[in-house]
Design a protein that fits this description.
two-stranded antiparallel ribbon; about 50% helix; globular
Length: about 240
């Protein structure tokens, strides 16, 4: 605890968080890390690499501590920030199938939870639309281009997103994750993905309520960019 307090006094946010997480009161890392991330994304020139390590570190807090009633405000803010940063990380890693779900997850939490974060639902909607239109137009050949090209505003939004996202450092992490049996016909039990609303083909992953399901492919990709369950409970997702 003394090391954490000293690091905090010295202005070393990351070290302070690390020591608090290793202490008997790991929840003390939450306000420090969350405030830092909120300050970063309030600036105009922030990048994914500047904030992701801090959220990644906070995700190691013990679940029983995160679920404490006194941590509810920080928990809600952490889930929202992890959802948003996870969406950007999914774009960078080309996990395209879960990008809309991550944006929708973040928007729903913003609507339903009383939080103070520098994110707006309109902003999330504009970013998702810009990503959809601009990434599709870039990936189509000249004879397949969309009838309606991206607007100037959408191009500006997408350019800003790319400047924040940068490129993935490890090429091995890029691209959709597939597990064995993903393309096999579905089993006799029909399971609908709570992320896409579509029937799941191949292996199914059950969420913590024992009812909600997503494909194992999506579960693996989600957990790699956002450690928390799509149900917004604060429970960690572990499909590995």
């Amino acid at each position: 605890m003394q090391l954490a307090e000293k690091a905090q006094t010295d202005g070393n946010v990351f070290e302070s968080m690390k020591y608090y997480l290793l202490s008997a009161e790991p929840e003390k890392a939450l306000p420090i890390g969350i405030q830092y991330v909120k300050e970063q994304i309030s600036s105009s020139d922030w990048t994914l690499d500047a904030v992701y390590p801090f959220l990644d570190l906070l995700s190691y807090i013990r679940t029983e501590k995160l679920l404490l009633h006194k941590c509810s405000e920080f928990r809600n803010e952490l889930l929202i920030l992890c959802g948003y940063i996870g969406a950007l990380l999914a774009i960078r890693r080309q996990y395209s199938s879960i990008v809309p779900a991550l944006y929708e997850y973040t928007s729903q939490l913003l609507k339903r939870r009383d939080v103070c974060v520098p994110l707006k639902i309109k902003q999330l909607s504009e970013e998702l639309d810009a990503w959809r239109v601009c990434s599709q137009s870039l990936n189509k050949s000249s004879d397949e281009l969309l009838q309606i090209p991206p607007s100037e505003l959408q191009q500006q939004i997408y350019a800003t997103m790319l400047s924040r996202i940068k490129e993935e450092h490890l090429q091995i992490t890029i691209g959709t994750n597939y597990v064995s049996g993903s393309n096999l016909p579905g089993h006799s039990d029909v399971h609908i993905s709570c992320l896409t609303g579509l029937r799941i083909q191949g292996p199914v992953f059950f969420l913590e309520d024992g009812k909600s399901t997503i494909s194992l492919n999506d579960a693996l990709m989600w957990a790699k960019v956002n450690p928390f369950s799509p149900l917004g409970t604060g429970i960690q997702l572990n499909p590995f």
